[in-house]
Structure formats: C-alpha cells, structure tokens
Write a structure and sequence with these properties.
globular, four-stranded antiparallel beta sheet, homodimer
C-alpha cells in the first residue's frame, strides 16, 4: 500500500473508504434528522460546476411513502429497502438554474448563458448531482453509518410518484443505517492502478 | 453547526470539506505518481453500480500533451491549467462492461443483460463515473492537495485529442497541486438544508 503518501489519518481512510461497505441489511437503530443534517452541513461544501448544487434529497420516513417507493424498485431491492431504518431518494432539480444568480454571484449571467435550454440543464444536473451523490455517500460514512446505494428501479415511476412537478429526476436510492447481520457480500475486485491511470 | 453528530474527526472534516477549496493557482511543488497512486488505492473502494468502475484518469505530464489539452479549454481555464503542477483528465470508458464479468462475479450476465446497447452504457458510465469523480476529488484532498475541477472545455475536442479509440468521454479536467497565492475566490453560498432535504 502506498497510502502513507496521504495526509488524511488512517482511521478516517478506513471509515470513509477502506472498511466502509455497501450494506444490504441494517440494525433497527433509527437514523435521526440531526444525523442527516450533520451529513448535509458537511458535504454541502463539495464543489460543483458554477456552484450549481442540483442535488435534492427526499427522506422516506412514513410507512405510506415507503410503500410507494418500494413498488418501483427492482425485486432484489424491495425487501432490504422495506426493512431499512431510513431510505433517501437522491434526485436532481432540473430547474436548479433558477438559484444560480444567488449561488454563483461572480457570473449571474450563467443562468441564461448556459442553461436556457432544458437538455443542457438535465445533462449538467446529472453530472453535478452524481458528484454530489458521491459526496453524500462519503458523508453517510462520516456519520458512522452504512449506505446502501441502489440504481435498480423504475426511474420514471419514482419521478412521477415523488416529483409531480416534472422538474426532478431520481439519481439513486440509498438505504441508510447501522449495518446488520451479514450486511455485505465479499468485497468485489477493483481495477488495478495501471488499468485506470495512464500518463501522457 | 450540527457536525458533532458525525464520527469523522474534525480535522478530517476540515481537510476534506470545510476548509478544502477549489484552487485556481498553485505553487510549483510537483505532484508525484506516488501521490496519485495513493489517492487511487484509497478511492477505488468507493461504490459504483454493479461495481462497474467506469472512471479512467489521464495524467497530463509532458509539455506537448499539456499544450494539446489547453487548446480545448475555455479561455478562463487556459492560463491556470498551463501553470498547474499536474492536470488530470477524468474520463469514462464506455466499454467498461467488458470488465464486468470479472468485476461483478455475483452476476456475470450483467454485461449482456444491461449493457449490450451503447446508449445504456454511456448513461451508466456518466452517472457512475461522476460518482467516482466525486471520490477522486475527495482523495486529492486526502493527500493534502487542492483540486481545481473544470468542465469548461470543448468535450468533443478533448475526446478526439486524447481518446482516439472513440470509446472514452471526458467528464472533467482537474488541476492538482498545493494552493498558491490568491488561490480561491470567497466561498460562494450553499443551499440551506431545508432547500435541499424534504421528508415524506
């Protein structure tokens, strides 16, 4: 390992990456709004292009909302989501550009210069929302919790069910909690450095 | 602040999110291959759907390659990139599915079941590559370095210039180094918790 070239302490490396795993079962210990707010107040600082911050998070807490969500998931994701202490729908607001004059005061014209067309907004929101989803998963782990991100679902179904305004697109659904019994499969292989990084 | 609900120590929170900033100037201190490998060996563990790992990284080290890159950047990104100690092109391999039988041994059929069509591969690579770009930016910060991610460029130009196989798509270009003088603008505002998170 060459991780001694890092400044981040080893315990934090383990917490966020090396020992953190995608969980498929959870204990019954609840996840509080305070924990989610603490996660947000940390990861909100992660960078996005033109500071656009398209990510939106829906916490699915009521039994009724959970049922509405689970029906749109792939079969393999239903039981674990029905049983998770908390499930978050990560989505993007495709009308994020309305906030840009406030969020990116250096260049208030960006809203109209880059984002007057919906397809340009959707592409940018997908890219930057996924960046923020990465930060969010790291933040869940920073709270000592396990994340179980999923993309196996009927996206159109979730969009219609939870975002009646037609302006949001689901990016991922994430179960959150303390890992339960047999929470994970053996770690799957990662690509080697030389398969991923080249130099020109 | 409600970050006392987090397990991650405060110094790590500051290093990765709270004090880390997008840098626009850098010192001349070089960034070594060992540092980049240490970053990769940490962030490779971040989760992707079906463990697909579509991210690929091109380190632009030669003067000739840097010139080839800079010509495709927006004017505002040219000078700072020409002067950065190291610039990385973050891209996705749209043929990532070829590795899936090895990377996701639980379900070797995933390659053909989900990814036989190029548009499905591109959409998945964009989403999961952006997640990994988020992890990579966090990893740069974990190495005590500043990242300067940019999406202002001619994407098609970069793809043709650096990925002649037609199978890769640039996601972001990231300058990497120790922050120099006047490295950043004042922090731009972040959306409030209540603007981002709702409960159902």
């Amino acid at each position: 390992m060459t991780t001694d070239a890092l400044v981040l302490d080893t315990a934090a490396q383990d917490l966020l990456f090396r020992e953190a795993r995608t969980a498929n079962t959870f204990t019954e210990e609840p996840v509080s709004d305070e924990q989610i707010q603490a996660i947000y107040e940390l990861v909100k600082f992660g960078p996005t292009a033109l500071n656009q911050q398209p990510l939106r998070v829906v916490l699915v807490r009521s039994a009724e909302a959970r049922e509405r969500l689970v029906q749109h998931l792939s079969d393999g994701n239903k039981a674990k989501t029905a049983a998770a202490p908390l499930t978050a729908i990560l989505a993007v607001d495709n009308e994020f550009h309305e906030e840009l004059p406030t969020l990116f005061p250096h260049f208030p014209q960006a809203k109209d210069a880059f984002f007057s067309e919906r397809p340009a907004r959707e592409a940018s929101a997908q890219m930057n929302g996924a960046l923020q989803a990465g930060y969010f998963i790291i933040g869940v782990r920073a709270a000592g919790l396990a994340a179980g991100p999923m993309t196996g679902y009927d996206a159109e179904g979730i969009n219609k069910e939870f975002f009646a305004d037609g302006e949001h697109s689901v990016l991922a659904v994430v179960n959150i909690g303390k890992p339960g019994e047999n929470a994970w499969y053996p770690r799957s292989p990662r690509l080697a450095y030389d398969q991923v990084v080249t130099t020109v």
